[in-house]
Write a structure and sequence with these properties.
This protein is an alpha/beta fold and 251 residues long. Among the domains are: 57-119, Arc Repressor Mutant, subunit A (Orthogonal Bundle), CATH 1.10.10; 131-219, Glutaredoxin, CATH 3.40.30. The chain is built from eight helices and five strands. The chain has helices at residues 4-14, 57-67, 79-89, 96-106, 110-119, 139-143, 146-157, 199-210, and strands at 131-136, 170-175, 187-189, 192-195, 218-219. A five-stranded mixed β-sheet has the order 2-1-3-4-5, with helices on one face. The protein is extended, with a radius of gyration of 28 Å. Residues 232-251 are annotated as: Disordered.
Amino acid sequence: MITRTAFRAACKAAKPKQTVPASARSLHASSSQSSDALFVHRDTPYNNSKIPFEFTPDNMKKAQEIIARYPPQYKKAAAIPLLDLGQRQNKGWTSISVMNYIANLLEVPSMRIYEVATFYTMFNREPIGENLLQVCTTTPCALRGGYDILKACEDHLKIKPGQSTEDGKFTLLEVECLGACSSAPMFQMNDDFYEDLTPETTRKILDAFAAGEKPKAGPQSGRHTIENSAGLTSLTSTPYGPGQHCVPEFQ
C-alpha cells in the first residue's frame, strides 16, 4: 500500500514542466505594423465637435433625395452616400462635426456613423490636399512597376505616403487594389483613374495638376480602353446585325 507522502512525491514527479500560458505567448514573430488610418478621435483645434457644419441648400436637397431612396425605417442605410456628400463639401475630409451632423440627420446614434467612417478608407479622417493621389501597389500593379510609380510620385512631390505637400496641392497615399488591374500600373487622382503609367507620364500628370490643369483620365499609353496592347485578337470584323443568322421566319 502506497503512503500519502509517496503518492504526493509521485504526482510531483509526473507533473508536466511549467509552460508559458497561451495568453502570454506571442502569436506571430513579425513586428506589429500600425495602420495610417485614424480610428480614434482626439479633439484638435481644426477637428472638434464645436466647429459647426451643415449642408449647403444644394447639398441638403441632394441629401433629401438620397434619403428618399430608402424606406423611412431604413434611412440609416443612407449613411455612406451622405458621408461622401459631407466629405466633398468639407474640402475632402470627414470631421467629427460632419459625422455628428449626418447622425442627427438620419436620427441614429452617433456611434453608428463613426463605425462607418472608420471602416471605409474612402473617408479621410484628416485634412487632405487639393488633389488626393492614391497609388496602387497591390500584386498586379507591383508586377507592372507600381513601386516605380510610387517612387516617382515621392521623388517628384518630395513627400512620403500619408503626407501632403507644403503648398497643399497634393496628398499621397499608398493603397490596395483599385480594380484597374488590366491596365496596371495605375493611380487614382481624386475621382479619376490614370492607367498604363510610366515614371515619365506620372511626372507629366503631376505637373499638369500642379498647374491647375486636369489631364485626360484613362490609359496613358495610347490605348482607348483596355484592349490587348498587342492588338485586337477578337471582334476583328463587323458584328452582324439583328436577325442576320436567324431562320427566315424570325428575320
